[in-house]
Amino acid sequence: MKPIKVGLLGIGTVGSGTFNVLKRNQEEITRRAGRSIEIAMVADLNVERARELTHGEVEVVSDANLVVSHPDIDIVIELIGGYGIARELVLKAIANGKHVVTANKALLATHGNEIFKAAQEKGVMVAFEAAVAGGIPIIKALREGLTANRIQWIAGIINGTTNFILSEMRDKGLDFSTVLKQAQELGYAEADPTFDIEGVDAAHKATIMASIAYGIPMQFDKAYVEGITRLEASDIRYAEELGYRIKLLGITKRTPEGIELRVHPTLIPEKRLIANVEGAMNAVLVQGDAVGATLYYGKGAGSEPTASAVIADLVDITRLATADPEHRVPHLAFQPGSISNLPILPMTEIVTSYYLRMHVEDKPGVLADVTRILADFSISIDAMLQKEPGEGETQTDIIILTHQTKEKNIVAAIQKIEALNAVSGDVTKLRLEDLN
Amino acid sequence: MKPIKVGLLGIGTVGSGTFNVLKRNQEEITRRAGRSIEIAMVADLNVERARELTHGEVEVVSDANLVVSHPDIDIVIELIGGYGIARELVLKAIANGKHVVTANKALLATHGNEIFKAAQEKGVMVAFEAAVAGGIPIIKALREGLTANRIQWIAGIINGTTNFILSEMRDKGLDFSTVLKQAQELGYAEADPTFDIEGVDAAHKATIMASIAYGIPMQFDKAYVEGITRLEASDIRYAEELGYRIKLLGITKRTPEGIELRVHPTLIPEKRLIANVEGAMNAVLVQGDAVGATLYYGKGAGSEPTASAVIADLVDITRLATADPEHRVPHLAFQPGSISNLPILPMTEIVTSYYLRMHVEDKPGVLADVTRILADFSISIDAMLQKEPGEGETQTDIIILTHQTKEKNIVAAIQKIEALNAVSGDVTKLRLEDLN
């Protein structure tokens, strides 16, 4: 059979990894796919560097339009990133009857519905294994490996930068800003790390996973997004004393009322396997009604790990390219006509447990007042930690872990607690998931 | 579209799980598959119980031949087990043009080559996600998720019974036979546990994984198989003192000389995630050249977890049943014409590190003799532990961890060590893998 011809848009870290792995493992990949897969064209604004990276073996152009409209190209790989040009080019490629592989979570989480609809109408595939958790085949697991299951919840460490920062904060007892600076020096965090540390990147990925887990449209705008920038070293220490680790989790849960979709720092019991995922590694824990819990772990970013996912998509498409569209795996795991309209719940309605830290006067009656307020909102206490005041100090920290309650209850209770005279400053609230 | 009709051979634990999950999640599974999947016939010798389990909703027969030859049946699920009748029925089903789903690792590891050849010729699929690691979609990950990679090695906890026993031995400091009895009482071990505790079950699964990782035929007869029956509580304790856990691992590695394929108790560093997989859980660690290490964790057995894998295969087949055979994923991950003849290495040629425990006279010169012998075979020492003799005793244990060496070197060295006058009894030898 003649080779599948691939056009690559953007040859940065992942693009050059894709080129190199495809070349290095060409023989083995062809033995698997039954057909050779060949990058025939590359579009990059830096034509010079693109030529160097591809050793002059591939046609390089600066205008990506030439790739998405080229009659010889079967599959377009979009590695430009962002929502602007990338969206236009993906839609053009689809309109021209090309299959698309993309690692662009931001694009899919915000414009996925439009893109998948166009692909469906045109009878082409849009594959995106690389968009979530890098080289871990989590999209395939959710969309094909767990098809028997009613998926109940997913909780994932899906941003390596923040997991690296949290691991370092715990390991070395350092505060957020110090570790961020180190992470930037080591190349684990970008010069502008906003998307990572504010949880936006994780929310893009959680949005995609929710969509294929429950068969709902992409609804990034309804995700709750909270990053790790306000996390203090003391919270990590107190959590540890209570037997918990703090991880930035992307969480999505199915409840009778609707879908929870949220990203925030989360306490998890240290004895869970996922609590021990350290450094820049990713891991996704999926709870299905038949299979129970399964965990998927690996590198969530980087040149060749991400290329591994991009190429897996190329092989999948190569296997199915000439088959009838109706035999393919649906983009959102469920048939296009069977998408559910289960609503995404507002954050006030989600149910979870909480970690509360408050700074209080060390005098009788304070704890009675605090616990009375919690009781008034039917919030029961699971564990408590009160520290002795430092030498010569009159104030101390109280840490409370609650049982499950609705977010709106805890918010209301905190408001009352903060109004107490003996409580100074804000109450720190973190969410806690048992993941059992 | 009309429903896909499934015939079930054997309705025990996994069979009834499959029936129940298919029924409970029917709506969701149909939304995914695009077509309803229906168990239309069940064959079981115990017709009465089969009728009860299927609530009289399905035609039950005692003769499985009626199912594999029934013109309405599209897919046959084989859950009988063993190599005899199961092999005959699977081959008959294939000959009759039925697709087959099986959880039977023993059958595939020993007769897989014959079965896949027949399926290939007939243009039907034989799917076997449930044969390895129960509900964990590891076959899909290896065969489709990691297609970009040259797979370098796989190490898996792929037998829940033995992992439960090892976890209990470590946790409670009990010896093997005591824990085995408890495991049998709790239903974690069979009345005849030979296949599990002697490593045969794990070797069947490792054989299957090696085959699809490297594109080699199934060669169970060349696998090295060592169980956990001779493991002593003291070895688990000493390993722990040195920072290691002992797990029964199924290991397969690609080396320039050939493929290693072996099952044995293995020391692994306690800080590895897989070292912390406890109880009856399974986990498979895969090293690919592009993606690095990925880990897959979940329940490796049980009614609904295994049913989850069986049904995933049904959905895959449903999606591809009417498609051209050449667009399907090849049975052994590589195209039938591209199977490799890389040899399986004999055990004497494998390379790994070792844990040695010897019982010696507590007198000068013994350690010098032992280390001299190791040096003569170019085996270098990574760590050592010498215990003080008990009160009034003159003998003590020496534990040595070696760097990597060939198995035949360590065997020869042990022979010389055992011949020393100061060494009493056999030297205990366990293998150690760094898994880094």
UniProtKB/TrEMBL annotation, chains A, B:
GO MF annotation, one: metal ion binding
Key words, A-Z: Amino-acid biosynthesis, Metal-binding, Methionine biosynthesis, NAD, NADP, Oxidoreductase, Threonine biosynthesis
Gene Ontology biological process terms in this record: methionine biosynthetic process; threonine biosynthetic process
Binding site for NADPH: 105
EC number: 1.1.1.3
Reported cofactor(s): a metal cation
Binding site for NADP(+): 9-16
UniProt feature coiled coil, ranges: none
Domain ACT: 355-435
Pathway(s) annotated for this protein in UniProt: Amino-acid biosynthesis; L-threonine biosynthesis; L-threonine from L-aspartate: step 3/5; Amino-acid biosynthesis; L-methionine biosynthesis via de novo pathway; L-homoserine from L-aspartate: step 3/3
Protein name, as recorded: Homoserine dehydrogenase
